[in-house]
Amino acid sequence: MVQTTDIPVMALKEQITENHHEFLESLHHRFLDEDRKAALQRFESMGFPTKKDEEYKYTSLKEITEKAYNFFPKEHHNITREQLDELHLGEENFDWITFVNGKLHKELSKVSIENVEFLSFNYALNDEKHRDVFEKYFNTIAEDKSAFTNLNQAYCKYGFFLKVPKNVVIEKPIHVFYISQNQEENTFYNTRNLLIVEEGAKVEIIESHHNFDSTYVLTNSVTEIFTYPNAKADWHKVQNDNDTSYLIDNTFAKQEKDSLTTVNTFSFGGKLVRNNLDFIHNGSNINSFMNGITVIGKDQLVDHHTAVHHNFPNCESYQNYKGIFDGKSHGVFNGKVFVDKIAQKTNAYQQNNNVLLSEGAVIDTKPQLEIFADDVKCSHGCTVGQLNEDALFYLRARGISKKEAQALLLYAFANDAMQNIDIEPLKEKISKLLAEKLEVDIEF
C-alpha cells in the first residue's frame, strides 16, 4: 500500500513573494515599480499582524492568511442586468460604476457626471496627464501605515480615481460596485480608490462589494480622500457580502479648513471584516463624522478601528457606532481621538453601544482619548448589555409578541446611527437591511 502525505497549501505571505515579479510584468505603469518593490519589502519585514500585535489583539487573521489565493482574477463573467438590479438601491437618479473581477465595465455602468476627472485606477496610472496628480496625492496619507497598506501599494491595480474641481457640486450620488464572479479559485483583490474634492466642491460615494461564488474572496482595499476648504465629501460603505468573503478596508481622510467629511459604515455580511478609518485634520473649523451599524450572527467577525487626529483648533469630530451580535459572532471597536496641544476648542464625541443577543456573542470595545490641550470638550463611552426588560414588558403588554418586541427595540437602538444619511434611497435600503436582519416588519 502506497502511503500519501498531504502537501500543505502555500500560505498567503509566501504566495505574495512568489507572485510579485509576475504581477509587475503584467503592468504597464513602470514609474511605480520601485515604489511597489519597496512596499513589498516593508510588508515582508512586518509580516501579517497576529494577536500579539496590540492593534489585532482581538482579531485573528489565521483563517485568511493560511488560505491560497489566485492573484490574477479571470475576467470572464456572465453578470445579468437582473442580478445587478438586485444590488441597486432603487436609485434611478444615481450614477453607478461597476467593476467585475477587477475590471471597469462601462456597459454595466451609468456615468453622467460632467466637469470632473473620472478614470479607472489602472487607466489613470497609465495616463501621462495624471502623472503629476498621482505623484502629489497617491499614498501620501496611507504610506507605510500597516502590513495591509504596504501590501496594497505593492499590488494595487483595481479601483477608481475621481477629482471634483473647485465649486463643482455633484448632485447625483455615485454607487461603486465591486463584483467577483466565475472564479474557480480563492481570489485576492487589492482595490485602490483616490478621491480629491477641491475647494467648495461636493460629492457622495456609496461603495459595496459582492462575491457571487462559493470560493473565497479576500479584498484588501485602500481609499484616500482629500477634502479641501469648504468642500464636502461623504463616503458610505454598505458591507453585506456572503459568508465566503473577507474584507480588509483602509480609509484615510485628510481635511483642510472649513471642510466636512463623513464616513458611514454599515456591516451586515461577510465572514471577516476589518475597517481601519483614519481622519487627519489639516486646518481649523473642520467637521468629521463617523457612524457605524453592525448586525451580525453565526461566527462572523466585524472589527472597527478608528482614529481622529485633531491637529488644529476649533474642530469637531463625532463617532457613533452601534452593534448587535447574535450566535457566536464577535465584534471589536477601538476608537482613538488624538488632540494636539495647539488644538484648543476641540469638540470630540465618541460612543460605542452594543447589544448581545446570545451567550456565545462577544464584543471587545475600547474607546480612547489622548488629549494634550486644556480647552476642549471631549467625551467617550461604551455600553455592552441586553435589551431593556421594562421596555420589552411595555410592548408585550400591548399585544406585541416577544420576538417582534425585541426586534422593534433593536431597530430603534440602531436607528440613530444613520440619521445623518441625506440620501433617501440609501437610508431606506439600510433600514430594510436592518429590518431583515432583525426579522421585523416595518413600513417605510
Task: Please describe the structure with a list of short key phrases separated by commas or semicolons.
globular, 10 helices, ten-stranded mixed beta sheet, alpha/beta, 20 strands, Fe-S cluster assembly protein SufD, disordered N terminus, 444 residues
Please provide a written account of the structure:
This protein is α/β, with parallel strands linked by helices and 444 residues long. The protein has one domain (23-438). It contains 10 helices and 20 strands. The chain has a 10-stranded mixed sheet with strand order 2-1-5-8-10-12-14-16-18-20, with helices on one face. Strands 3, 4, 6, 7, 9, 11, 13, 15, 17 and 19 form a 10-stranded mixed sheet that branches. The chain is globular. The chain starts with 11 loop residues before the first helix and ends in a 6-residue tail after the last helix. Mean pLDDT is 89; it is low at 1-9.
